[in-house]
Amino acid sequence: MHAALYVSKTGLSAQDKQLTTISNNLSNASTIGFKRDRAVFEDLLYQIQRQPGGQSTQDTQLPSGLQLGVGVRVSGTTKEFTEGSLQVTDQTLDLAVNGRGFFQILQPNGNISYTRNGQFGLNSEGQIVNVNGLLLEPAITVPENTNRVEIGTDGTVSAYSEGNAAGQQIGSIQLVDFINPAGLQGIGSNLFYQTASSGDPIAGTPGENGMGTTLQGTLENSNVDIVEEMVNMITTQRVYEMNSKVVSTADQMLQFITQNL
Amino acid sequence: MDRALYTAMTGAKNNMLAQASHANNLANANTQGFRADFAQARSMAIYDGPGLPSRVFSMVENPGTDFRPGAVQETGRELDIAINGEGFFAVQAPDGTEAYSRDGGLNIDVNGVLRNSKGLPVVGTGGPIALPPAEKIEIAEDGTISAVLLGQGVDQPVVIDRIKMVSVDSRTLEKFEDGLIRLREGGKDGEVIAPDPNMKLVSGFLETSNVNTVDEFTNMLSLSRQYEIQIKMMTTVKENSESSSQLLRMS
Prior knowledge:
The structure holds two protein chains of two kinds. By secondary structure, chain A is an alpha+beta fold. Chain A contains two helices and 20 strands.
């Protein structure tokens, strides 16, 4: 059959995946702590139809051969861990990491997952949990009768109550960092798991050793740039149309030969 | 049957091969740093015996690759780099040879090795570049990578390496079957190009594919019409041969 049919088919499916990535980014344009994905394309192998430099006669060589590329593929998606803008909410348990670092969230099965989403709350036992009720790691319990909780930029959590105006330190938030955050595996709910590609977590105190500081009453917005996604959507759509036009041209050629010969 | 049928056949077949090449360019119209391939047809004459020299077959070939720069797109990511003007980044191909690429979407793997979006290590002054765990990485205009290491102050950035950039006459380069660009002569035998200290890059930008979709598409359409003409030739040959067999028919 016509080789162009299969080549364009790879183009169509790659643009399809690109559009899926874009639409996921756009739908998470206002998800706190979301990091945008980028689809990365690469050209597939080339098939040599005629060897460059092959002998055309005993004494002469072909100056150039024929190599046909067989299309494109999505080599992967990478998460872009650029920082989103910060939004001041003045909620006591809203936290943002200003700089590198992830909060640790304990999964029910005992694994640790990582997040940039700092929307925390309290459960019925006074423990600090994320929006899905999963415990922050290391666990911090706010005592009863607490009026006010203060979280310092170094992650220190202090509770103030009536009759205890001096406050009492009830724990401190630890952050972790990765050598290759783009290698983290997203598991949904703004959470990530470490993988062989992200490397092991490097724990640290906020504000020390290159770790970001924790900001109370602040949230990190999604880092999706809507204009960029829109422009990407336009190019994706046009390239898709071009490739589908190639498919229909190849189809018409095959049709022409079957009907006219 | 007349040999014109076979002449028309090579025309149609080579039109289809040329179209596959253009289809590959269009499929990669969104691939970072992709360079479009040219396709042209050459006439291959076969003259044997007396008569008119009318047996000229066609042969499609890639005379080369289009090395013009593509459009540059802003991303704001610190590890996205694009070369300003002509030239290439050096990367290490899986077979250990040095290849050249304009794909500047870099990543750091778990061992700290700087790789491009195909996963090939980027070459610095002496082979692949390994980065220590760093708080912030900056790639300067001349390819120098500096980093603020974890635990060190922002006032003590460390220079780590310099990305190798080369400027070279693009006529000496060739795209090999793994899609990587190397020196045509000796590129597979480990011959390398010396770095050019005057090359400039911009960080926070990515170079897109240099495929001109309008060009490719016009070529596609023109090849498709040419193909129809070849088929028309075949039908004409068929009709001729039908009429000649009718002439001989006893009625």
